[in-house]
Amino acid sequence: MSAVLEKALLKAREAFHRNVTKDVNFRIKQLQQLKRCLNDNKEEFVKALNADFRKPRMEAVITEIDFVNKDIDYQLSHIRDFIKPKYAEKKGLSTFLDTCYIKHEPFGVVLIFSAWNYPIQLLLCPLIGAIAAGNCAIIKPSEISSNTEKMMAELLPRYLDRECYHIVTGGPEEATRMLNERFDLIFYTGSTAIGKVIYKSASKFLTPVVLELGGKSPVYMDDSINMEIAVRRLLWGKCMNGGQVCIAPDYLLCTKEVKEKFINVANKVLKEFFEGDSKNSESFARIINDKNFNRLQNLINSTNGKIVIGGDTDKETRYISPTIVTDVISADALMKEEIFGPILPIITIDSVEEAIEFIKRGEKPLTMYLFTNKKQVYQKFIDETSSGSLVVNETMLQMTVEELPFGGVGESGIGSYHGRFSFETFSHKKSVMIKDYNPIVEFLASVRYPPYNENKLKKLQMLVGHSIVDEINLGKFLRYFLTFSLGIIATITVFILNEKFL
Protein backbone atom coordinates (compact mmCIF):
# COMPACT_ATOMS: atom_id res chain seq x y z
CA MET A 1 0.00 0.00 0.00
CA SER A 2 1.35 3.43 -0.94
CA ALA A 3 1.99 5.98 1.80
CA VAL A 4 -0.68 8.28 0.38
CA LEU A 5 -3.33 5.57 0.39
CA GLU A 6 -2.32 4.33 3.84
CA LYS A 7 -2.61 7.82 5.32
CA ALA A 8 -5.94 8.49 3.60
CA LEU A 9 -7.46 5.21 4.82
CA LEU A 10 -6.28 5.75 8.38
CA LYS A 11 -7.72 9.25 8.54
CA ALA A 12 -11.02 8.24 6.97
CA ARG A 13 -11.48 5.25 9.29
CA GLU A 14 -10.69 7.31 12.38
CA ALA A 15 -13.13 10.03 11.30
CA PHE A 16 -15.88 7.51 10.69
CA HIS A 17 -15.30 5.85 14.08
CA ARG A 18 -15.66 9.27 15.71
CA ASN A 19 -19.11 9.54 14.04
CA VAL A 20 -18.11 12.76 12.29
CA THR A 21 -20.25 11.99 9.23
CA LYS A 22 -23.31 10.87 11.21
CA ASP A 23 -24.38 14.48 11.78
CA VAL A 24 -26.80 15.52 9.03
CA ASN A 25 -25.68 19.15 9.29
CA PHE A 26 -22.12 18.02 8.54
CA ARG A 27 -23.33 16.17 5.45
CA ILE A 28 -25.30 19.20 4.27
CA LYS A 29 -22.26 21.45 4.67
CA GLN A 30 -20.09 19.06 2.65
CA LEU A 31 -22.64 18.94 -0.17
CA GLN A 32 -22.81 22.73 -0.18
CA GLN A 33 -19.02 22.89 -0.30
CA LEU A 34 -18.96 20.49 -3.23
CA LYS A 35 -21.36 22.75 -5.09
CA ARG A 36 -19.17 25.76 -4.31
CA CYS A 37 -16.16 23.89 -5.71
CA LEU A 38 -17.96 23.35 -9.01
CA ASN A 39 -19.36 26.84 -9.36
CA ASP A 40 -16.23 28.70 -8.19
CA ASN A 41 -14.14 26.85 -10.78
CA LYS A 42 -16.68 26.29 -13.53
CA GLU A 43 -14.65 27.78 -16.38
CA GLU A 44 -11.47 25.99 -15.31
CA PHE A 45 -13.33 22.67 -15.37
CA VAL A 46 -14.71 23.43 -18.84
CA LYS A 47 -11.20 24.17 -20.08
CA ALA A 48 -9.85 20.94 -18.58
CA LEU A 49 -12.56 18.90 -20.28
CA ASN A 50 -11.78 20.59 -23.57
CA ALA A 51 -8.08 19.89 -23.15
CA ASP A 52 -8.78 16.21 -22.42
CA PHE A 53 -10.87 15.48 -25.51
CA ARG A 54 -12.23 18.73 -26.87
CA LYS A 55 -15.54 18.25 -25.10
CA PRO A 56 -17.84 21.01 -26.41
CA ARG A 57 -18.57 23.76 -23.89
CA MET A 58 -22.33 23.18 -24.03
CA GLU A 59 -21.91 19.49 -23.26
CA ALA A 60 -19.38 20.23 -20.52
CA VAL A 61 -21.75 22.65 -18.79
CA ILE A 62 -24.97 20.64 -19.17
CA THR A 63 -23.76 17.05 -18.75
CA GLU A 64 -21.03 17.65 -16.19
CA ILE A 65 -21.35 20.87 -14.13
CA ASP A 66 -25.12 21.39 -14.20
CA PHE A 67 -25.85 17.67 -13.94
CA VAL A 68 -23.85 17.40 -10.72
CA ASN A 69 -25.32 20.62 -9.31
CA LYS A 70 -28.80 19.26 -9.91
CA ASP A 71 -27.92 16.05 -8.08
CA ILE A 72 -26.56 18.04 -5.12
CA ASP A 73 -29.71 20.16 -4.98
CA TYR A 74 -31.86 17.03 -4.95
CA GLN A 75 -29.98 15.55 -2.02
CA LEU A 76 -30.04 18.84 -0.11
CA SER A 77 -33.80 19.07 -0.60
CA HIS A 78 -34.52 15.53 0.55
CA ILE A 79 -31.75 14.44 2.91
CA ARG A 80 -33.66 15.17 6.12
CA ASP A 81 -36.54 13.04 4.87
CA PHE A 82 -34.20 10.29 3.68
CA ILE A 83 -32.61 9.85 7.10
CA LYS A 84 -35.92 9.52 8.94
CA PRO A 85 -36.74 6.02 10.19
CA LYS A 86 -39.24 4.15 8.03
CA TYR A 87 -41.73 2.49 10.35
CA ALA A 88 -43.25 -0.90 9.63
CA GLU A 89 -46.95 -0.61 8.88
CA LYS A 90 -47.87 -4.28 8.75
CA LYS A 91 -47.32 -6.26 11.94
CA GLY A 92 -48.82 -9.39 13.41
CA LEU A 93 -50.53 -9.84 16.76
CA SER A 94 -47.27 -10.86 18.38
CA THR A 95 -45.57 -7.56 17.46
CA PHE A 96 -48.40 -5.06 17.03
CA LEU A 97 -47.36 -3.00 20.09
CA ASP A 98 -43.65 -3.06 19.21
CA THR A 99 -41.71 -0.27 17.57
CA CYS A 100 -40.34 -1.61 14.27
CA TYR A 101 -38.49 0.53 11.75
CA ILE A 102 -35.69 0.69 9.19
CA LYS A 103 -32.71 2.89 10.01
CA HIS A 104 -30.47 3.96 7.14
CA GLU A 105 -26.90 3.89 8.36
CA PRO A 106 -23.69 4.53 6.39
CA PHE A 107 -21.50 1.60 5.40
CA GLY A 108 -18.29 3.26 6.56
CA VAL A 109 -15.32 4.05 4.30
CA VAL A 110 -16.25 3.56 0.65
CA LEU A 111 -14.05 3.44 -2.45
CA ILE A 112 -15.18 5.18 -5.64
CA PHE A 113 -13.57 4.56 -9.05
CA SER A 114 -14.71 6.91 -11.81
CA ALA A 115 -14.49 6.68 -15.60
CA TRP A 116 -12.75 9.05 -18.00
CA ASN A 117 -15.60 9.85 -20.39
CA TYR A 118 -17.52 12.00 -17.88
CA PRO A 119 -14.74 12.67 -15.38
CA ILE A 120 -16.71 15.16 -13.29
CA GLN A 121 -20.17 13.61 -13.31
CA LEU A 122 -19.03 10.02 -12.83
CA LEU A 123 -16.71 10.94 -9.97
CA LEU A 124 -18.90 13.38 -8.06
CA CYS A 125 -22.40 11.88 -8.42
CA PRO A 126 -21.41 8.71 -6.55
CA LEU A 127 -19.55 10.88 -4.03
CA ILE A 128 -22.73 12.91 -3.50
CA GLY A 129 -24.59 9.72 -2.59
CA ALA A 130 -21.78 8.64 -0.27
CA ILE A 131 -21.76 11.99 1.53
CA ALA A 132 -25.54 12.20 1.82
CA ALA A 133 -25.67 8.71 3.36
CA GLY A 134 -22.96 9.58 5.90
CA ASN A 135 -19.95 7.67 4.58
CA CYS A 136 -16.31 8.63 4.42
CA ALA A 137 -14.82 8.14 0.96
CA ILE A 138 -11.62 7.47 -0.94
CA ILE A 139 -12.09 8.55 -4.55
CA LYS A 140 -9.98 7.55 -7.54
CA PRO A 141 -10.49 9.65 -10.70
CA SER A 142 -9.44 8.20 -14.04
CA GLU A 143 -5.89 9.06 -15.02
CA ILE A 144 -6.90 8.95 -18.71
CA SER A 145 -8.70 12.31 -18.54
CA SER A 146 -5.54 13.73 -16.99
CA ASN A 147 -6.36 17.44 -17.06
CA THR A 148 -9.61 16.97 -15.19
CA GLU A 149 -7.95 14.52 -12.79
CA LYS A 150 -5.32 17.14 -11.93
CA MET A 151 -7.97 19.77 -11.23
CA MET A 152 -9.94 17.42 -9.00
CA ALA A 153 -6.82 16.55 -7.02
CA GLU A 154 -6.02 20.21 -6.49
CA LEU A 155 -9.48 21.55 -5.76
CA LEU A 156 -11.47 18.97 -3.81
CA PRO A 157 -9.22 19.04 -0.71
CA ARG A 158 -9.72 22.82 -0.52
CA TYR A 159 -13.48 22.45 -0.22
CA LEU A 160 -14.21 19.11 1.45
CA ASP A 161 -13.32 17.84 4.93
CA ARG A 162 -9.75 16.52 4.74
CA GLU A 163 -10.30 13.84 7.35
CA CYS A 164 -13.35 12.24 5.74
CA TYR A 165 -12.80 12.59 2.00
CA HIS A 166 -9.59 11.81 0.13
CA ILE A 167 -8.65 11.78 -3.54
CA VAL A 168 -5.94 9.35 -4.64
CA THR A 169 -4.50 9.64 -8.14
CA GLY A 170 -2.47 7.22 -10.22
CA GLY A 171 -2.75 4.50 -12.82
CA PRO A 172 -3.66 0.81 -12.79
CA GLU A 173 -0.93 0.00 -10.25
CA GLU A 174 -2.44 2.34 -7.67
CA ALA A 175 -5.92 0.97 -8.38
CA THR A 176 -4.61 -2.56 -7.82
CA ARG A 177 -3.12 -1.53 -4.48
CA MET A 178 -6.48 -0.09 -3.47
CA LEU A 179 -8.21 -3.37 -4.22
CA ASN A 180 -5.87 -5.16 -1.83
CA GLU A 181 -7.31 -3.11 1.04
CA ARG A 182 -10.57 -3.58 2.86
CA PHE A 183 -13.37 -1.10 2.19
CA ASP A 184 -16.98 -1.12 3.30
CA LEU A 185 -18.35 -0.66 -0.24
CA ILE A 186 -16.78 -0.27 -3.68
CA PHE A 187 -18.44 1.77 -6.43
CA TYR A 188 -16.96 1.38 -9.92
CA THR A 189 -17.84 2.92 -13.27
CA GLY A 190 -16.12 1.55 -16.37
CA SER A 191 -15.73 -1.52 -18.54
CA THR A 192 -17.25 -4.93 -17.86
CA ALA A 193 -13.80 -6.56 -17.99
CA ILE A 194 -12.42 -4.39 -15.17
CA GLY A 195 -15.72 -4.67 -13.32
CA LYS A 196 -15.22 -8.43 -13.11
CA VAL A 197 -11.72 -7.91 -11.66
CA ILE A 198 -13.10 -5.57 -9.01
CA TYR A 199 -15.94 -7.96 -8.20
CA LYS A 200 -13.45 -10.79 -7.66
CA SER A 201 -11.16 -8.64 -5.50
CA ALA A 202 -14.06 -7.47 -3.36
CA SER A 203 -15.08 -11.05 -2.69
CA LYS A 204 -11.95 -11.54 -0.54
CA PHE A 205 -13.53 -9.31 2.10
CA LEU A 206 -17.19 -9.87 1.14
CA THR A 207 -17.29 -6.18 0.28
CA PRO A 208 -20.52 -5.08 -1.41
CA VAL A 209 -20.00 -3.61 -4.87
CA VAL A 210 -21.88 -1.36 -7.26
CA LEU A 211 -20.75 -1.82 -10.85
CA GLU A 212 -21.88 0.71 -13.46
CA LEU A 213 -20.70 -0.92 -16.67
CA GLY A 214 -21.82 -0.80 -20.31
CA GLY A 215 -22.61 -2.99 -23.26
CA LYS A 216 -24.12 -2.77 -26.70
CA SER A 217 -27.30 -0.72 -26.29
CA PRO A 218 -29.62 -1.50 -29.23
CA VAL A 219 -32.03 0.75 -31.12
CA TYR A 220 -35.17 -0.52 -32.81
CA MET A 221 -36.94 1.70 -35.33
CA ASP A 222 -40.10 1.12 -37.40
CA ASP A 223 -42.08 3.14 -39.98
CA SER A 224 -44.73 4.51 -37.60
CA ILE A 225 -42.57 7.45 -36.49
CA ASN A 226 -41.72 10.99 -37.48
CA MET A 227 -38.46 10.04 -39.18
CA GLU A 228 -36.79 13.44 -39.06
CA ILE A 229 -37.37 13.90 -35.34
CA ALA A 230 -36.38 10.30 -34.59
CA VAL A 231 -33.12 10.60 -36.54
CA ARG A 232 -32.25 13.86 -34.79
CA ARG A 233 -32.79 12.31 -31.38
CA LEU A 234 -30.87 9.16 -32.22
CA LEU A 235 -27.88 10.90 -33.79
CA TRP A 236 -27.76 13.46 -30.98
CA GLY A 237 -27.38 10.57 -28.55
CA LYS A 238 -24.86 8.80 -30.78
CA CYS A 239 -22.65 11.85 -31.40
CA MET A 240 -22.68 13.33 -27.90
CA ASN A 241 -19.19 13.29 -26.40
CA GLY A 242 -17.93 11.78 -29.65
CA GLY A 243 -20.01 8.67 -29.00
CA GLN A 244 -18.06 7.98 -25.80
CA VAL A 245 -21.09 7.47 -23.58
CA CYS A 246 -22.05 4.24 -21.81
CA ILE A 247 -25.72 4.70 -22.75
CA ALA A 248 -25.10 5.82 -26.34
CA PRO A 249 -27.09 3.99 -29.04
CA ASP A 250 -24.74 1.24 -30.18
CA TYR A 251 -26.46 -0.27 -33.23
CA LEU A 252 -29.74 0.06 -35.13
CA LEU A 253 -32.22 -2.70 -35.99
CA CYS A 254 -34.73 -1.87 -38.73
CA THR A 255 -36.26 -3.09 -41.97
CA LYS A 256 -34.70 -2.37 -45.35
CA GLU A 257 -37.33 0.28 -46.09
CA VAL A 258 -36.74 2.11 -42.80
CA LYS A 259 -32.98 1.88 -43.34
CA GLU A 260 -33.16 3.74 -46.67
CA LYS A 261 -35.27 6.51 -45.18
CA PHE A 262 -32.98 6.72 -42.14
CA ILE A 263 -29.83 7.16 -44.24
CA ASN A 264 -31.36 9.92 -46.35
CA VAL A 265 -32.46 11.89 -43.30
CA ALA A 266 -29.21 11.16 -41.40
CA ASN A 267 -27.15 12.78 -44.17
CA LYS A 268 -29.16 15.95 -43.83
CA VAL A 269 -29.21 15.97 -40.02
CA LEU A 270 -25.46 15.46 -39.61
CA LYS A 271 -24.74 18.34 -42.00
CA GLU A 272 -27.02 20.56 -39.91
CA PHE A 273 -25.54 19.42 -36.61
CA PHE A 274 -21.94 20.15 -37.58
CA GLU A 275 -22.47 22.74 -40.32
CA GLY A 276 -21.14 20.38 -42.98
CA ASP A 277 -17.74 19.94 -41.30
CA SER A 278 -17.64 17.80 -38.18
CA LYS A 279 -13.83 17.80 -38.20
CA ASN A 280 -13.68 21.52 -37.48
CA SER A 281 -16.91 21.79 -35.56
CA GLU A 282 -16.75 22.96 -31.94
CA SER A 283 -19.83 20.82 -31.28
CA PHE A 284 -18.10 17.47 -31.80
CA ALA A 285 -15.66 15.92 -29.32
CA ARG A 286 -12.48 14.00 -30.06
CA ILE A 287 -11.52 10.46 -29.06
CA ILE A 288 -9.84 10.49 -25.65
CA ASN A 289 -6.47 8.92 -26.53
CA ASP A 290 -4.48 7.04 -29.16
CA LYS A 291 -5.41 3.64 -27.78
CA ASN A 292 -9.12 4.24 -28.20
CA PHE A 293 -8.62 5.99 -31.54
CA ASN A 294 -6.70 2.99 -32.88
CA ARG A 295 -9.37 0.60 -31.63
CA LEU A 296 -12.11 2.53 -33.46
CA GLN A 297 -9.96 2.91 -36.57
CA ASN A 298 -9.48 -0.87 -36.61
CA LEU A 299 -13.22 -1.43 -36.32
CA ILE A 300 -13.81 0.77 -39.37
CA ASN A 301 -11.07 -1.00 -41.31
CA SER A 302 -12.26 -4.47 -40.26
CA THR A 303 -15.98 -4.21 -40.93
CA ASN A 304 -17.44 -6.13 -43.83
CA GLY A 305 -20.37 -3.73 -43.88
CA LYS A 306 -20.86 -0.82 -46.28
CA ILE A 307 -19.85 2.63 -45.02
CA VAL A 308 -22.60 4.91 -46.33
CA ILE A 309 -21.84 8.00 -44.22
CA GLY A 310 -18.50 9.15 -42.81
CA GLY A 311 -15.61 6.80 -42.22
CA ASP A 312 -13.10 9.68 -42.17
CA THR A 313 -10.34 9.70 -39.56
CA ASP A 314 -7.35 11.82 -38.54
CA LYS A 315 -4.90 10.25 -36.11
CA GLU A 316 -3.09 13.49 -35.32
CA THR A 317 -6.22 15.09 -33.85
CA ARG A 318 -7.89 11.77 -32.88
CA TYR A 319 -10.86 12.67 -35.07
CA ILE A 320 -13.34 10.07 -36.25
CA SER A 321 -16.28 11.35 -38.21
CA PRO A 322 -19.88 10.34 -37.48
CA THR A 323 -20.04 7.06 -39.39
CA ILE A 324 -22.97 4.88 -40.46
CA VAL A 325 -22.39 1.36 -41.71
CA THR A 326 -25.05 -0.82 -43.39
CA ASP A 327 -25.24 -4.51 -44.35
CA VAL A 328 -23.75 -5.47 -40.98
CA ILE A 329 -24.22 -9.01 -39.67
CA SER A 330 -23.91 -10.36 -36.14
CA ALA A 331 -20.43 -11.80 -36.82
CA ASP A 332 -19.04 -8.42 -37.95
CA ALA A 333 -16.21 -6.75 -36.03
CA LEU A 334 -18.54 -3.89 -35.16
CA MET A 335 -20.81 -6.26 -33.25
CA LYS A 336 -18.13 -7.95 -31.14
CA GLU A 337 -17.73 -5.22 -28.52
CA GLU A 338 -19.26 -1.99 -27.28
CA ILE A 339 -18.33 0.60 -29.90
CA PHE A 340 -17.91 3.62 -27.60
CA GLY A 341 -17.42 5.97 -30.51
CA PRO A 342 -19.34 7.75 -33.31
CA ILE A 343 -19.93 4.64 -35.44
CA LEU A 344 -23.47 3.31 -35.97
CA PRO A 345 -23.92 -0.15 -37.56
CA ILE A 346 -27.32 -0.93 -39.09
CA ILE A 347 -28.60 -4.49 -39.05
CA THR A 348 -31.54 -5.28 -41.31
CA ILE A 349 -34.37 -7.32 -39.82
CA ASP A 350 -37.81 -8.27 -41.14
CA SER A 351 -39.97 -8.15 -38.00
CA VAL A 352 -40.29 -7.08 -34.40
CA GLU A 353 -39.89 -10.69 -33.34
CA GLU A 354 -36.60 -10.98 -35.22
CA ALA A 355 -35.31 -7.80 -33.56
CA ILE A 356 -36.21 -9.08 -30.09
CA GLU A 357 -34.61 -12.44 -30.77
CA PHE A 358 -31.43 -10.74 -31.98
CA ILE A 359 -31.21 -8.64 -28.80
CA LYS A 360 -31.90 -11.60 -26.53
CA ARG A 361 -29.03 -13.58 -28.05
CA GLY A 362 -26.60 -11.01 -26.66
CA GLU A 363 -25.81 -9.83 -23.14
CA LYS A 364 -28.35 -7.68 -21.33
CA PRO A 365 -27.63 -4.06 -22.33
CA LEU A 366 -27.38 -1.00 -20.13
CA THR A 367 -30.23 0.60 -22.03
CA MET A 368 -32.50 0.02 -25.02
CA TYR A 369 -34.01 2.58 -27.39
CA LEU A 370 -37.20 2.11 -29.36
CA PHE A 371 -38.52 4.46 -32.02
CA THR A 372 -42.12 3.47 -32.61
CA ASN A 373 -45.59 4.90 -32.07
CA LYS A 374 -47.12 1.44 -31.80
CA LYS A 375 -47.97 0.69 -28.20
CA GLN A 376 -48.17 -3.06 -28.84
CA VAL A 377 -44.62 -2.95 -30.23
CA TYR A 378 -42.93 -1.11 -27.38
CA GLN A 379 -44.95 -3.06 -24.84
CA LYS A 380 -43.64 -6.26 -26.41
CA PHE A 381 -40.07 -5.07 -25.91
CA ILE A 382 -40.83 -4.03 -22.33
CA ASP A 383 -42.31 -7.43 -21.53
CA GLU A 384 -39.94 -9.70 -23.45
CA THR A 385 -36.48 -8.14 -23.09
CA SER A 386 -34.22 -7.21 -20.18
CA SER A 387 -32.08 -4.08 -19.93
CA GLY A 388 -31.00 -1.51 -17.36
CA SER A 389 -33.46 0.97 -18.83
CA LEU A 390 -35.75 1.22 -21.84
CA VAL A 391 -36.62 4.45 -23.62
CA VAL A 392 -39.28 5.01 -26.26
CA ASN A 393 -38.83 7.74 -28.91
CA GLU A 394 -35.89 9.42 -27.17
CA THR A 395 -32.25 8.83 -26.24
CA MET A 396 -30.15 9.68 -23.18
CA LEU A 397 -32.73 11.73 -21.28
CA GLN A 398 -33.63 8.93 -18.87
CA MET A 399 -30.47 10.01 -17.03
CA THR A 400 -32.07 13.32 -16.10
CA VAL A 401 -35.08 11.88 -14.23
CA GLU A 402 -34.11 11.72 -10.55
CA GLU A 403 -36.95 9.36 -9.69
CA LEU A 404 -35.55 6.72 -12.06
CA PRO A 405 -32.65 4.51 -10.93
CA PHE A 406 -29.64 4.41 -13.23
CA GLY A 407 -27.89 1.07 -13.49
CA GLY A 408 -27.46 -2.10 -15.49
CA VAL A 409 -28.42 -5.73 -15.28
CA GLY A 410 -26.30 -8.81 -15.89
CA GLU A 411 -23.05 -7.86 -17.65
CA SER A 412 -24.11 -4.21 -17.89
CA GLY A 413 -23.92 -3.73 -14.15
CA ILE A 414 -24.90 -4.39 -10.55
CA GLY A 415 -26.82 -1.85 -8.48
CA SER A 416 -28.07 1.63 -9.32
CA TYR A 417 -27.95 5.26 -8.23
CA HIS A 418 -29.20 8.83 -8.89
CA GLY A 419 -31.70 10.72 -6.74
CA ARG A 420 -32.96 8.74 -3.75
CA PHE A 421 -31.33 5.63 -5.18
CA SER A 422 -27.89 7.15 -4.53
CA PHE A 423 -28.74 7.55 -0.85
CA GLU A 424 -30.14 4.01 -0.73
CA THR A 425 -27.11 2.53 -2.50
CA PHE A 426 -24.68 4.01 0.01
CA SER A 427 -26.82 3.08 3.04
CA HIS A 428 -27.19 -0.11 5.01
CA LYS A 429 -30.84 -0.68 5.89
CA LYS A 430 -30.76 -1.77 9.52
CA SER A 431 -33.90 -3.39 10.92
CA VAL A 432 -34.74 -2.17 14.43
CA MET A 433 -37.33 -3.70 16.77
CA ILE A 434 -38.06 -2.36 20.26
CA LYS A 435 -40.29 -4.30 22.65
CA ASP A 436 -41.22 -3.51 26.25
CA TYR A 437 -42.46 -5.76 29.05
CA ASN A 438 -46.19 -5.19 28.55
CA PRO A 439 -47.96 -7.99 30.44
CA ILE A 440 -50.75 -8.25 27.84
CA VAL A 441 -48.30 -8.86 25.02
CA GLU A 442 -46.34 -11.29 27.15
CA PHE A 443 -49.50 -13.20 27.99
CA LEU A 444 -50.48 -13.48 24.32
CA ALA A 445 -46.96 -14.50 23.26
CA SER A 446 -46.39 -16.96 26.09
CA VAL A 447 -47.48 -19.81 23.83
CA ARG A 448 -44.02 -19.69 22.21
CA TYR A 449 -42.31 -21.05 25.29
CA PRO A 450 -41.62 -24.77 25.91
CA PRO A 451 -42.95 -27.28 26.59
CA TYR A 452 -44.42 -27.35 23.07
CA ASN A 453 -47.71 -28.96 22.09
CA GLU A 454 -50.18 -28.90 19.20
CA ASN A 455 -52.47 -26.42 20.95
CA LYS A 456 -49.60 -23.95 21.38
CA LEU A 457 -48.57 -24.48 17.76
CA LYS A 458 -52.00 -23.49 16.46
CA LYS A 459 -52.12 -20.39 18.67
CA LEU A 460 -48.62 -19.36 17.68
CA GLN A 461 -49.42 -19.75 14.00
CA MET A 462 -52.37 -17.44 14.51
CA LEU A 463 -50.20 -14.87 16.27
CA VAL A 464 -47.27 -14.75 13.85
CA GLY A 465 -48.83 -15.85 10.59
CA HIS A 466 -51.09 -12.88 9.86
CA SER A 467 -50.74 -9.15 9.45
CA ILE A 468 -53.38 -7.11 11.24
CA VAL A 469 -53.46 -4.64 8.34
CA ASP A 470 -53.93 -7.35 5.74
CA GLU A 471 -56.45 -9.45 7.65
CA ILE A 472 -59.89 -8.91 6.16
CA ASN A 473 -61.62 -12.19 7.11
CA LEU A 474 -64.22 -11.17 9.70
CA GLY A 475 -64.33 -14.57 11.41
CA LYS A 476 -60.60 -14.66 11.94
CA PHE A 477 -60.57 -11.02 13.04
CA LEU A 478 -63.23 -11.77 15.67
CA ARG A 479 -61.21 -14.68 16.98
CA TYR A 480 -58.12 -12.49 17.22
CA PHE A 481 -60.13 -9.78 18.95
CA LEU A 482 -61.61 -12.31 21.38
CA THR A 483 -58.17 -13.68 22.20
CA PHE A 484 -56.86 -10.15 22.75
CA SER A 485 -59.83 -9.22 24.94
CA LEU A 486 -59.50 -12.36 27.04
CA GLY A 487 -55.85 -11.53 27.54
CA ILE A 488 -56.74 -8.07 28.83
CA ILE A 489 -59.45 -9.46 31.12
CA ALA A 490 -57.12 -12.14 32.47
CA THR A 491 -54.40 -9.60 33.15
CA ILE A 492 -56.76 -7.20 34.95
CA THR A 493 -58.18 -10.08 37.01
CA VAL A 494 -54.71 -11.12 38.12
CA PHE A 495 -53.91 -7.56 39.17
CA ILE A 496 -57.19 -7.21 41.14
CA LEU A 497 -56.68 -10.52 42.93
CA ASN A 498 -53.13 -9.61 43.80
CA GLU A 499 -54.26 -6.27 45.26
CA LYS A 500 -57.11 -7.91 47.20
CA PHE A 501 -55.19 -10.72 48.86
CA LEU A 502 -51.79 -9.14 49.40
From TrEMBL:
Protein's recorded name: Aldehyde dehydrogenase
Lineage: Eukaryota, Metazoa, Ecdysozoa, Arthropoda, Chelicerata
Gene behind the chain: LOC113793046
Span of domain Aldehyde dehydrogenase: 5-432
Gene Ontology annotations for the cellular component aspect, listed alphabetically: cytoplasm
Keyword Flavoprotein: no
Pfam family name, one: Aldedh
Active site per the UniProt annotation: E212, C246
Family under the similarity heading: Belongs to the aldehyde dehydrogenase family.
Molecular function terms, GO-annotated: aldehyde dehydrogenase (NAD+) activity
InterPro entries noted in UniProt: Ald_DH/histidinol_DH (IPR016161), Ald_DH_C (IPR016163), Ald_DH_CS_GLU (IPR029510), Ald_DH_N (IPR016162), Aldehyde_DH_dom (IPR015590), Aldehyde_DH_NAD(P) (IPR012394)
Keywords: Membrane, NAD, Oxidoreductase, Transmembrane, Transmembrane helix
Swiss-Prot/TrEMBL GO biological process terms: aldehyde metabolic process
Organism (species): Dermatophagoides pteronyssinus
Positions of transmembrane segments: 477-497
